[in-house]
């Protein structure tokens, strides 16, 4: 059978370029020879170690946090709209007003939480931009005349 695995779900998707990204590695090899003894003949043991240099993709990280920031903003808007909808229902349906008030307050809390998440991701994006800027200017001299 083919060794092809398909993931069905939301969180197991990989883009083609993520699977085949080249990785720089340094291979270290160490050979040890043990001499003959009274108990038996000697042997040689070789140990190989690969050290992978992982280069951080700063642009990808900035985009990633930007997308998550937008999702947080969208969640805040959606929850806020639902809270207003429930407030309107509470006025129009006095028989179930208490239920609608509770749902309104839950939606308002969700809107605040989503807004906080968007704010958090905004600062993560700013930090990633600063890291990218520091990485890009590493080793370069800047002469400011004014």
TrEMBL record:
Region (Disordered): 1-20, 115-146
Protein's recorded name: Abscisic stress-ripening protein 2
Residue ranges with Basic and acidic residues bias: 119-139
Family, per entry: Belongs to the abscisic acid and water stress-induced protein family.
Bias type Basic residues, positions: 1-13
Gene (name only): LOC110784813
Residues spanning the signal sequence: none
Origin: domain of life: Eukaryota
Pfam family, one: ABA_WDS
